Amino acid sequence: MSPADLPPFLLAVAFLIAVHEWGHFRMARACGVKVLRFSVGFGRVLWRRVGRDGTEFTLAMLPLGGYVRMLDERDGPVSPTERQHAFNQRPLRQRAAIVAAGPVVNWLVAILMFTLVAWMGADVPKAVLGTPVPATAAERAGIRSGDWVHAVSSDGQSWDEVRGLPELLDAVARAQALREDLYLNVTDGQGRGERRLHLDMTAPADASIGARVLQSVGILPYAAPLVSSVKPEGPGAQAGLQPGDRVLAINGRAVEDAGQLRSLIRAAPIDDVAPQSLLLRIERHGQVLELGATPRAVTENGQRFARLEIGIGAAPERVSVSYGLLDGVAKGAQDSWNLAVLTVRMIGRMLVGEASVKNLSGPLSIAEYAGQSARAGLAPFFDYLGKISLSLAVLNLLPLPMLDGGHLMYHLFEGLSGRPVSEWWQQQLQRVGALILMLMMALALSNDVARLAGWH
């Protein structure tokens, strides 16, 4: 995380908290409840304005929270003339609607963000795969270098189109997190030779983010085995390699893609006393050449391997992905639902020990992700806003005291029993809820620190 990540993070958090509280605020007004204060942030008040109806609007120094304070007889005396506008005097269905309005607005914002991303479109890497990592689910599934993924399925019957590598990434991440099988419909790079492959994702595995999701199951994006750069005076330069050279074979073994080329070089035998040379067959400007290169031994993180000190791989082929008006809305709604289901099921698996608590991300990871998405462009930042907004919606609907979901459970009890939860029980449950939330925040923050320190 860098200082540059902080402004987009604070902007995103302040915006999403504001729309969450605005949901409570608008529903309260619609139900005839008097709102005393609408606050975004905590601490010293930086800005204040009083509306015509007496509602105080404030912006505080720490934009990491907010609240809507309503007229309520449980908080203090209320004059008889205003009693009808107190929250506790409204019918049960209205009180429940006011509590639920915040998470609902966050969910709607998520749908809007995902819809905007679908409408805007993007040039993304084509879903073409490289040689899989040995002894992984991808290798066992029979994935070959150059396989182009057209569709995915969780049951082999109902298929979802894959328009680019990010959609494949999402499907793999979801299957890995939920430990569900994943089926791939693939062809070669020209769309010939259709095959259906089965990825066994049922083995326990920690969920990852970004490209690590693909690598953890052995899937690597395809990149041509090209030399992109050559370090001066390095082994590759001494062998005569040049940027743009395409490596066809090493020691007689054909090279299919950049990942395989990198692995073959790293695995080359190295001997400081009698270094062994690699025979490279390359293509340069349509001409096939053979060069001898002696790699240099390198030790990193306790591992010793060979290196030619060259850049490997070319930019992947990209495709333009965008959606029309109605298709974009459907895509936004479907993405939000899939992410919500994934989040709830992951929380459930963590509670029963089927998924690692290392999957919890804290403010440092979220801030880092905010900075990365903001630098990547408007569409990635909208996607980030949608994911965080949906996470806020799901988190607030958890049945924990102090959260909206906990208050909804109080209202459910009242609806079923005909009497409200007693103040004594509310106080005890609030203490338990506060303890659980503090433990969750401490765990998430410790995960952030461990990840940044490289401990896991």
From TrEMBL:
Look up and give the membrane topology term: Multi-pass membrane protein
Q: What is its main location?
A: membrane
- State the PROSITE patterns in the record: PDZ (PS50106)
Q: Can you tell me where the transmembrane regions are?
A: 6-25, 97-122
Listed cofactors: Zn(2+)
Q: Which family does it belong to?
A: Belongs to the peptidase M50B family.
What is the protein name stated in its UniProt record? Answer: Zinc metalloprotease
- What is the species listed in this Swiss-Prot or TrEMBL entry? Roseateles paludis
